[in-house]
């Protein structure tokens, strides 16, 4: 299992009237396989998730993934930490589903024909067989989210960070993606408003107003959040 450390991390962003701190000093050691971040809109969950692969830099302090400093060893960290965005359009960059997955396989499969064949196998594994030639823009929300997740997992990350991966999905697809994420062998950090999904994780962090307000047993943290939403 991977090992994620936040050491006295803060995040500030420039605004028209000076810097604004959006994450107060936070120290965490995440070793559980499935970690959920819950909390109100604008509380800092995405900021916390994005720190884990350097999409957001720490203003002070350090983020370390499997011994690698995110600020200094960003490339190595990004190879390890796969990031799934809420909106698949943010990460589906190739014209067709097959080519998009193949892009993720470029390091492991140098030969183009082999790469495309491997991409088809990945699509089939995700229940997307027959989608190879489909335009990534013509997919439904659920199909797009599955494809985005397939593309990230094809890079064989040791940590998967998913930012509200089920928000755009109907009930069936939301369950499907949730089940898939929770069944992964890798460490998964998921930002979610789905408290059922959060309760099925091993550890839940309640983020509020830029700080971790509660951290621990999923049932207890989710119950606290429901009572004090
Ligand atoms: N680059 C930025 N510049 C200015 N403010 C920012 C920036 N990034 C985030 N913020 C602000 O920081 C706060 C936390 O944002 P963040 O996206 O982490 O919240 P969140 O908990 O993920 O919210 P949501 O549930 O709505 O997605 C928000 O008030 C947001 O507007």
Q: SSE order, as H and E?
A: EEEHEEHEHHHEHEHEEH
Q: What would you call the shape?
A: globular
Number of separate helices? 8
Q: Strand content of the residues, in percent?
A: 25-35%
Structure notes:
One of its GO terms (molecular function) is ATPase-coupled transmembrane transporter activity. Residues 4-229 form the ABC transporter domain. Belongs to the ABC transporter superfamily. It holds the Pfam family ABC_tran. It comes from Nocardioides cavernae. With 229 residues, this protein is an alpha/beta fold. It has one domain (4-227): 3-Layer(aba) Sandwich (Rossmann fold). Helix content is 34%, strand content 28%. The chain is built from 8 helices and 10 strands. The strands form 2 sheets. Strands 6-7-8-3-9-10 form a 6-stranded mixed beta sheet, sandwiched between helices. β1 and β2 (18-30) form a beta hairpin. α3 (97-104) packs across α4 and α3 runs parallel beside α5 (141-154). The chain is globular and about 50 Å long. It starts with a strand and ends with a helix. The structure holds adenosine-5'-triphosphate. Adenosine-5'-triphosphate binds at residues 13, 22, 39, 41-47. The site of adenosine-5'-triphosphate has 10 residues, from α1.
